[in-house]
Amino acid sequence: MNNFQYSRATDIADAIRLLTADPGAKLIAGGTNLIDLMKENVERPSRLIDISRLPLRDIEETAGGGLRIGALVPNSDLAYHPLVEQRYPLLAAAILAGASAQLRNMASVGGNLMQRTRCAYFYDTATPCNKREPGSGCSAIDGLNRNHAILGTSASCIATNPSDMSVALVALGALVHIAGPSGQRAIALIDFHRLPEDKPHVDTNLGTGEIIAAVELPKHGFARNYSYLKIRDRLSYAFALVSVAAALELDGNAISEARLALGGVAHKPWRSLEAEAALRGRAATPDHFSRAADLLLQGATSRAHNRFKIELARRAIVRTLIQAAGATPQSQAHKKIA
Amino acid sequence: MNAYVGTPTSRIDGRAKVTGAAKYAGEFSADGLLYGFVVEATIPRGRIARIDAGDALQVKGVVDVLTHAHRPPLADNDDAWKDEVAPEKGSPFRPLYDDRIRFNGQPIALVVADDWETAKFAATRVRVEYDREAFATDLESEHGKAGKLDRPHKPRGDAAAALAGAAVRHQADYVLPTEHHNPMELYATTVVRDGSGRLTVHDKTQGVQNVHKFLCSVFNKKPDDLRVVSPYVGGAFGSGLRPQYQVVLAVLAALELKRSVRVVLTRQQMYGLGYRPMTIERVALGARPDGTLDAVTHEATAVTSRYEDFSRNDTGWAEQLYKSPNSLFSHKLVDLDLSTPCDMRAPGAASGVCALECAMDELAVALKLDPIELRLKCYSDRDQSEDLPYTSKQLRECYARGAEAFGWTRRNPAPRSMRDGKELVGWGMATGVWEALQMPVAVRIVLTSNGHAEVSCAASDIGTGTYTIVAQVAADALGLPIENIDVKLADSTLPQAPVEGGSWMAASSAHAVLGAAEDIRLELARLAKAVPASPLGGVDAPDVILVDGTIAKAGDKARAVSIADAMRHGKLERIEKQKLNHFAEDKSHARNTHSAVFAEVKVDEELGVIRVTRVVSAVAAGRILNTKTGRSQIMGGVVWGIGMALHEETVMDHRFGRIMNANIAEYHIPVNADVHDIDVIFVDEPDDRINRLGVKGLGEIGIVGVPAAIANAVYHATGKRIRRFPITLDKLLD
Questions:
Q1: Which ipTM score applies to this complex?
Q2: Residue B268 and residue B283 share a domain
Q3: Which entry of A33, A241, A324, B59 is 20 to 30 Å from B47 by CA?
Q4: Domain boundaries, position B361
Q5: Does A41 contact chain B (CB < 8 Å)?
Q6: pLDDT digits over A204-259, tens only?
Q7: In degrees to the nearest 10, what's the CA dihedral of A104, A109, A112, A114?
Q8: Does A127 touch chain B (CB under 8 A)?
């Protein structure tokens, strides 16, 4: 671990000022990912700006009937918040599918959005990695890539985004509220994370000096017909090989609205409006789910070791949609797949 | 008698462990303690062209940076570096000895600073340049370069011909990956130096006297110059049998700097220690239509380092277990640019029996026989390799009791025939086998007149429950409540013990306790009879027992003298007896433990997600000293077996010769969600030949057979035979 300076931000403006003044600085909230990366010498911030005491811990209803979630709300508080449990159970399920109770207690909502890939080469400073060291090459493309991306990859990076929470948030159409040197802005979460293209070292579209203030959920929470299914190499405490967030609005057996997002398959949570459109107005049947899966996975490519993820994702999408349509969501406590 | 032995006695060290009072090697402290942090090589093979510690030494708080070019003297011959369990053939690794890089993760410098964080930071400032050399780390690509080992396997008959002529044949390769122990406690050594320069070495090890002797020879020290202690060990599973490099580095720094020094490895660095070697197990079985075996061949090809030949008994189990007139076994090693493998729970058997028992399952399918029936057809009451009877072998009973508890008769033999909703249900079974070894161990008992006894021995308790069983045996033998027994272990100055491993410590230490307690009994009998008007007058020594804090006549407890009275009258405050156990040389019988393992898996038919919903392990291991810690031992083995079957694999990128999952987030072991019902059955196995108590030991047997039982259950559920472990869901999707 490298030595670093430590500053405690007094308010959001102070955090932005500190961040702008020191290009090597990093924000720290729960630290569940950043500290690990610092111990591995992957992250070597010149300064840590502690934002954990900023007043960004509220969960409040918006005028439009949605929910505004402060960036520092711990993941577990969010998952167990009564309004989230009642109105956005898909989000609660996705959060509880991730990490461990201890990590969820520490990790913040903003930090969860900022967590970095778990690609083994990214973590190992003795190997080339374009994300860690731009221009050094990608070791995964021709190396160990069993758990790497099948969608949206580039010639310089095939890493995945490891978040579960983001997958549900993207499916729910969340907005990210950002504060920066030139004021406040909001962008759709689907546009927050980037694809690797030729700049895999840039994970998000957050600009210099900008910080996440809140995440906003729209009114519609799909509380009846939803499911989050995470497939992994052991039954808990592992990153997703594939995860699926599905949410449906049903009129009888007809789908009036559909949301579908994938985790563990790309550099960002993967959503396809085309796949969702293909479900709208159709009957909730496995055939239609299968068609949606094909559309969502359109363009999927594999490397030496991750070909199975395409078929696994296809089957997982269908299963998750069946769970959602039947109002039998996947339990995160009981690991038998519903 | 027998108030404690055989009962579910709670750990006497349990409270100290859960309250944090138990101190581990990295928790001892000293005035002016310095902290060492290891710098590792990042290439698998070559030489250190230049190592520049200049920047590191500039960091405030850094005291020194030790390297091969800057260190106190180390022994220059292999004999000095060979510890008690070093492989016979080879040249043991010497940390910071020279400029040669033998494996990725090799320690090449130790940064010593006033605190750990400073040392860790400064370690990033040590600059290293290498002369790289071509290397190889992949067993499968180097398979052709395997060299055959001399093994005392006795081929029987003509296995090749018998196999060729067999009515039913099965042959396959089973691939077991490299695995790392990952004990919870990190490898650590704290060397405390006193004013006279004497060193107390608090080390994480399975054998303090092994480390003591090793350090004396490596550093050319007299036995009194240093003492090695290790009262508590947070798991080791074989990785602590040999002295690990951190103990050398900590002592090196303490000698160079004349200070107390602590070195703690990181989890990642522990992947540079020993490991269960990747092994390709080729098993061929030939049978007659009735299911009796005609031929067994088992050829293992395993990884070792280029500097030592490590191998364990992978293939001998088939040789011993099943009746077959023709058999052939061989073991090959491939030298690679890796650190030397080491023992890991049931070394050899965990892998070799996994392959054998999967192959037996495949043969049963080919023969259309029930897997238990096949094993009973080949059952042998004699050790087949030596043609010897066993001191005891209740494996038949293990099959019966295990099958009954599991409900095996309700199994539909057809694959994919049993289901539970969307899940396919599979039932599989396997046999387990291990040795029942006994080693020389000495124990000292000091009995004081207040009826308390201190029992001491250099043996380690690596979490297995040695403290508790020693106290149980001593309490029974001395007729005292267990609360009056104080056990001292794992100090090199205590009576002799070998490393704790191989499942031999329970039987060995228990008998040393019995020996010392017997001498105390004789002494007390003498004293009690000398008491004026002794109620034991005229009672012969053999008829005197120790019970309820008294010395009494067997069968007539009313005729008794209290220990306090006897010792007061004899003017003794304490009685001290030390005894080395003695096991008569007996080559007339084979000594083994056995098990029958039954597993149920449920596999999501579409997604391949596997859940091990039930395991029944029926174990025959002689008399169980402590049914509570014993059950825990077996459960731990079963959990590990689940990991071996489904999760564990050290993944290496052979382009870099580097382990790419060197942490416990990515190196998967079972978590709670992966572990369901585990039923442990101890089958009654009286054994009055093996030793006085009929004890065999339980350390290894719990894991053996479990991976095969699960793999066989996965086949039964899915119809897919996965021979490359671990069985991850992608292998079921194809």
A1: 0.97
A2: no
A3: B59
A4: 279-437+587-733
A5: yes
A6: 999 999 999 999 999 999 999 999 999 999 999 999 999 999 999 999 999 999 99
A7: -150
A8: yes
